[in-house]
Amino acid sequence: MPFQAMVRPEGRARMNLYEILTLLLALIGAVTGLTSLVRTRVIAEKQLEYQAIAAALAKRQLEALIRQEATTSKAEVTVDLVKVGRTDFRFVVSNRGLAPATDVNLEISPSGPDNPLVKGELDRKLPFPKLEPGQSFTLTAALHLRSAMQYPVRLSWRDPNGGIERRDVHVAL
């Protein structure tokens, strides 16, 4: 239909039913598209937030695995002074870690009041060749009435990775 046919004699344009329906459908399509765009943007923002959370969680899990691997590859050697009889005492050296310890050695600090370790037994047993997880060995403690009953002890051993570990502990009865 030519443009002149749609113009009223007063100069105003007149829309027929077909044009009105077309305009309404276009408006509905525009509103639908805009709504879809807004929703897509919100979903994309949430996905980015979830990805950041997942990345942080993965980082923490990796750190936990690294820590766990470090603890499982290390030995934890400890010493206790225990009474095994009425007058018998022993230093009990144990591996409480999850890996074996080799070349385990124990020394009483020279600054201590006295050294209750029996020299011949020390020469025979130390350094202890290999102390498996959960395993222990004993050293006789020659205590007497004037013994201090508490001693500064230095433990040293070699981890499976070859590193030398040292631990200073204070042992008391």
SSE blueprint:
Blueprint: H1 3-6, H2 17-72, E1 77-83, E2 89-95, E3 101-108, H3 119-125, E4 128-131, E5 136-141, E6 150-158, E7 164-172
Antiparallel strand pairs: 1-2, 2-5, 3-4, 3-6, 6-7
Assigned CATH class of the largest domain: Mainly Beta
**What's the total count of β strands?**
7
Radius of gyration: 41 Å
Number of helices: 3
Structural domain count: 2
Q: SS-based structural class?
A: alpha+beta
- Named at the architecture level, the CATH assignment of the largest domain is Sandwich
Strand ordering within the main sheet: 4-3-6-7
Low-confidence stretches: none
- Determine the CATH topology of the largest domain: Immunoglobulin-like
H-E string: HHEEEHEEEE
What does the largest sheet look like?
A: 4 strands, antiparallel
Report the oligomer. single chain
What characteristic shape results from the CA principal axes?
rod-shaped
Strand content of the residues, in percent?
25-35%
Question: Can you offer a commentary on this structure?
Answer:
- The chain is 39% helix and 29% strand.
- With 173 residues, the chain is an alpha+beta fold.
- It folds into two domains: 1-72; 77-172, Immunoglobulin-like.
- The radius of gyration is 41 Å and the shape is rod-shaped.
